[in-house]
Amino acid sequence: MTMKHADETTHFGFESIPLGEKQSRVNDVFRSVARRYDLMNDLMSAGLHRAWKNAFVAALGPSTTRPFRCLDVAGGTGDVAFRILDAAGPRAHVTVLDINGDMLAVGRERAGRRYQGRIAFVEGNAETLPVAGKSVDAYTIAFGIRNVPRIDRALAEAHRVLRPGGRFLCLEFSKVDMPGLDVLYDAYSFHVIPRLGEAVAGDGESYRYLVESIRRFPGPNVFARMIEDAGFRRVTHRLLTGGIVAIHSGWKI
Ligand SMILES: C[S@@+](CC[C@H](N)C(=O)[O-])C[C@H]1O[C@@H](n2cnc3c(N)ncnc32)[C@H](O)[C@@H]1O
Fold it and tell me: Which residues have a Cβ under 8 Å from the Cβ of 144 and sit 6 or more positions away?
């Protein structure tokens, strides 16, 4: 490691930490919450995450007739992958890639035999994808990219693995842009969610990180420029639920 890298810092929630430490701290969070992750999503969002993920898959519009290969990065327990396969035709295949074996283990159990031959679970890092260049039709990432230490590297990798004409689609927390809702959202995020995390997953600190990391993530216009800088074209975004989340789309042309 060069001195330059050794000196680099980043944020872990509101904490400033050496860049090289972030991934292992993130991995600790998801190892700790994996078994309660899906239940917590329902409780924290009052089920809203389901509507956001459904809107995300509708925006993707996977082919119902043609072969369709999708790489779902930071795919965790498979929630987005299952929705894509339910919406797509029999010739669709989704690879759920995640750095955390505990999250993938829950995903494998949830999938059971339902999607046999149409789904694969792969342990890997979004910054160095173990995937051939120009090999997928779509790259999806939901609530994942803000956890990746070097977002620019993850975006460059997304661009590399997509075939020309392929689609990049990201669902992530964004910036609330509705007066009134922002105050309520902050109060709920900082006071209720960590307590819920403590009560349900036995880990309030991990949920404090998740809330803080949302505040650290760039706003939708800045993130759109980062996607363009990675080489994507026709980059657009759409805010959902007053800006609580955003869907960013880009094309490899
Ligand atoms: C909030 S979960 C999202 C899971 C799933 N996409 C969903 O929407 O339910 C974030 C996921 O990102 C994964 N992750 C964090 N850093 C990663 C990296 N560098 N490469 C791949 N996955 C990563 C975590 O292990 C975790 O499973």
Answer: 73, 74, 75, 76, 126, 172
Is residue 75 in some structural domain?
A: yes
- Is the CB of residue 129 below 6 angstroms from any atom belonging to ligand 1? no
Establish whether residue 79 lines the binding site of ligand 1, counting it when its CB lies within 6 angstroms of any ligand atom. Answer: yes
Look at residue 189 and tell me whether its pLDDT is greater than 70: yes
Has residue 243 been placed in a domain? yes
Is pLDDT at 3 greater than 90 in this prediction?
A: no
105-153 pLDDT, tens per residue?
Answer: 999 999 999 999 999 999 999 999 999 999 999 999 999 999 999 999 9
**Pairwise pLDDT comparison (58 vs 3), residue with the higher score:** 58
Q: d(Cα 98, Cα 126) in Å, to the nearest integer?
A: 8
Closest Cα to atom 13 of ligand 1: 74
Residue 1 falls inside a structural domain: no
Tell me, what amino acid is at 88?
Answer: A
Q: Ligand 1, atom 14: nearest CA belongs to which residue?
A: 74
Query: How high is the pLDDT of residue 6?
Result: 60
141 located within any domain: yes
Write phi, then psi, for 175 (nearest 5 degrees): -115, 125
Q: How far is the CA of 73 from the centre of ligand 1 (A)?
A: 7
- The number of distinct structural domains making up the chain is 1
- Does 78 sit in the ligand 1 pocket, CB within 6 Å? no
**Residue 2 above 50 pLDDT?**
no
**CATH (domain of 53):** 3.40.50.150
